[in-house]
User: Which sequence fits this backbone?
């Protein structure tokens, strides 16, 4: 929970609905780490994975922005 008491991980009444969102978040965060490590090729590959496989997640839009900045 954050300082305001909101959960840091999304919640749902159907737990299986969360897995795609959590996977998209994990891949996006890993790509950001690669980017900070100057491993741009790996970062871009993961951003594309997020964009192509999790296009309905909020991380797809963020990944698209990162791809645009890098290219």
Assistant:
């Amino acid at each position: 929970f954050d300082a305001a008491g909101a959960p840091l991980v999304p919640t749902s009444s159907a737990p299986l609905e969360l897995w795609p969102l959590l996977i998209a978040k994990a891949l996006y965060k890993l790509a950001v780490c690669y980017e900070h490590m100057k491993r741009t090729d790996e970062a871009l590959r993961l951003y594309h994975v997020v964009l192509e496989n999790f296009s309905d997640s909020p991380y797809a839009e963020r990944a698209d922005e990162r791809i645009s900045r890098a290219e």
